[in-house]
Write a structure and sequence with these properties.
Elements (H helix, E strand, L loop, with lengths): L3 H13 L4 E7 L17 E8 L4 H9 L8 H17 L2 E3 L9 H9 L2 E2 L5 E2 L7 E9 L14 H4 L14 E2 L2 E2 L1 H9 L4 H6 L2 H5 L10 H12 L2
Antiparallel strand pairs: 1-2, 2-6, 3-6, 4-5, 7-8
Helix pairs in contact: 1-3
Protein name: 4Fe-4S ferredoxin-type domain-containing protein
Length: about 230
């Protein structure tokens, strides 16, 4: 078993230099189907990498200024480069949420941090609210001593008004799920300027994690990527 403290502290420090954070991890259960590690053998442990608030944004912008030409999915490319370099340093295989075939990042995140989904489908974090993301994972072929995820308060259970389901002008989110086509048409249309410049109105209506809310320019970047603008 790999000693966890020094490894995790060193990885966290390497990620912190880019505004990224470790988002928990776990060891796969015996007999569980797992992705491969660095050598191609089955991975035994996974550490999730992500962000809290918009901390990576200035690091990403500096990287982007140094790139030539148009880059498809620049944030994904930056994340892959940063996490890939950290993985190489610590003998892990880097994985991305956009890898094909898709890896179960949402399930991994719930397992690693004990989180549950909000009505918008984004995992609700007790500190960050909806203002966090998972950018990648480090897959190890050695077992790492990791604590069990603690029980966390699911803030959505205490939220009676559910403003996240009442702020979208086209009711994109409901008990029936996400109305993707209606949302996309609105964001691209003449009445979608508030969403394009300031982000999803439903997401911004959530009262939790306000200190970590993405600035408008970050939300506009993500909305443009979503809408293909």
């Amino acid at each position: 078993m790999t000693p966890a403290r020094s490894l995790i502290e060193n990885i966290a420090a390497a990620l912190s230099a880019h505004g990224l954070v470790l988002r928990g991890g776990f060891n796969f259960a015996g007999g569980e189907e797992t992705p491969s590690g660095l050598s191609g053998a089955a991975a035994i442990s996974v550490l999730l990498v992500g962000q809290a608030g918009a901390a990576p944004w200035p690091h990403f912008l500096r990287w982007r200024e140094g790139q030539s030409g148009t880059i498809a999915n620049p944030l994904d490319k930056w994340s892959r480069e940063v996490i890939g370099a950290v993985a190489e340093t610590f003998g892990a295989r880097a994985a991305s949420p956009s890898d094909r075939p898709y890896l179960p990042f949402q399930q991994w995140a719930m397992r690693a941090e004990g989180l549950r989904s909000s009505p918008l489908g984004i995992l609700m974090h007790p500190q960050y609210g909806l203002w966090h993301a998972y950018r990648g994972a480090l897959l190890f072929e050695d077992e790492i001593a990791l604590p069990e995820p603690r029980d966390v308060i699911h803030l959505c259970d205490a939220c009676l008004e559910k403003p996240c389901l009442k702020s979208c002008p086209v009711d994109a989110y409901s008990a029936d799920g996400f109305a993707h086509k209606a949302c996309l048409a609105h964001v691209r249309g003449q009445n979608g300027a508030p969403c394009r410049t300031g982000g999803c109105l439903d997401r911004n209506a959530c009262p939790y994690g306000a200190a970590y809310r993405y600035p408008p320019q970050v939300q506009a970047f993500h909305m443009a990527a979503f809408a293909g603008l």
